Amino acid sequence: MAKITLDNLAHSYLPNPKSEDDYALKQLDHVWADGEAYALLGASGCGKSTLLNIISGLLEPSRGRILFDDHDVTHAATAERNIAQVFQFPVVYDTMTVRDNLAFPLRNRGADADYVARRVLQIAQMIGMEAELDRKARGLTADAKQKISLGRGMVREDVNALLFDEPLTVIDPHMKWELRTQLKSLHQEFGHTMIYVTHDQTEALTFADKVVVMHDGRVVQIGTPQELFERPAHTFVGYFIGSPGMNVIPAEVSGRMASVAGAQIDLGAAYAPGGGRVALGVRPEFVQLRSGGEGVPVRVTRVEDVGRHRVVRLDMDGQELSAIAGEGDPLPADADRAVFAPEGINVYVDEWRIAPEVAA
Q: Gene3D superfamilies of this UniProt entry (predicted)?
């Protein structure tokens, strides 16, 4: 296992980058703790796989360093980094049996035969393939082959890090849940440093201790699932995490009051936004509907019943908002006001969250 340090790291696929926009991966300075499980989460093209390939040694960064336990591996070959990597699509040896595929990384390093046999059986049970151990990989389905790839990545206990690049793409939905659970169990048992690339928030939030949210080549927030949900550091985090995502509402803020669509909203704390574009971020869970009285004027446009709750779509002077109502909660028949719970309001300036002022 290893602590991973990204020191002034950046990468461009252009030979002579001139500006920040030329960088696929903009400057990163982060330390990822030894033995933690991280998920790199973001939309396609945000830099997740680029960063993973730099960590693994498949790509050398344009600038900066990467360190494993304070040892500079920026120019080290992949084989010298002692990592295991599982790719998006299965990479297996078709002429080998499942058993031999799983055993290959251990045998290649001269591990004891009894240990190899025990470890292969343990991993085969984890990925649900103990009954296929003596089958050739050639005749197996794509999802079965990907399970072999996962197993081969997990079979070694002595790696610095386990890297997963969207490994469950070809796995059926039910098996995805089981394999995520197994990966979590493996991490809890052996304490490997794990980095898991995905664009699926469910995969990220159920797998990782810390989620690294990337947007436009930047890491915009690193936090626990609870931190990302309650206090998104950037409006993209609020939009990307949650279903539906956070409402982002242009506002004027002065002290502890905000003005939205002609209504006054108590923020529960005082803010000093200064210049820039100011907005409130409010999760749908913190939007309550009322008939008349205080609140922002809205119009209900539709109600979507998703089983455990209902998503209420609202129009606020041309802007769409979302609210969540419990399955058994009554909706006012003539609801025309939305009220925001102060504890669920975040304030943003130019997309970044600002903290409230501390009372003297």
A: 2.40.50.100, Nucleic acid-binding proteins, P-loop containing nucleotide triphosphate hydrolases
- At 215 the three-state DSSP class reads strand
CA distance 28 to 5: 10
Assign residue 358 a region: left if phi > 0, alpha if psi is -120 to 50, beta otherwise?
beta
Residue 337 pairs with which residues in a beta bridge?
290, 297
Q: Count CB atoms within 10 A of the CB of residue 215.
A: 20
**Complete DSSP assignment for 240-290:** HSSSS--EEEE-EEEEEEEEETTEEEEEEEEE---SS-EEEEE-GGGEEEE
Question: HEC string of 23-40?
Answer: CCEEEEEEEECCCCEEEE
What global pTM score does this model have? 0.85
Instruction: List every span in the chain annotated with CATH 3.40.50.300.
Output: 4-240
Q: Specify the domain boundaries for CATH 2.40.50.140 within the chain.
A: 247-354
pLDDT per position in the chain (360 positions), as tens? 689 999 999 999 999 998 999 999 999 999 999 888 899 999 988 999 999 999 999 999 999 999 999 999 999 998 888 888 888 777 889 999 999 999 999 998 899 999 999 999 988 988 889 999 999 999 898 888 888 888 888 888 888 888 888 887 767 777 777 777 777 777 777 677 889 898 888 888 888 889 999 999 999 999 998 999 999 999 999 999 988 999 999 999 999 999 998 899 999 999 999 889 999 999 999 999 999 888 999 999 999 988 888 999 999 999 999 999 987 777 887 899 999 999 999 999 999 999 998 754
* Residue in this structure with the two tokens 């502890």, named with its chain if needed: 256
For the domain made up of 247-354, give the CATH fold: OB fold (Dihydrolipoamide Acetyltransferase, E2P) (2.40.50)
* Strand pairing report for 319-326 and 287-290: unpaired
**Sequence-separated (6 or more) residues with CB below 8 Å from residue 97:** 133, 134, 135, 136, 137
Q: Does domain 4-240 have CATH number 3.20.20.140?
A: no
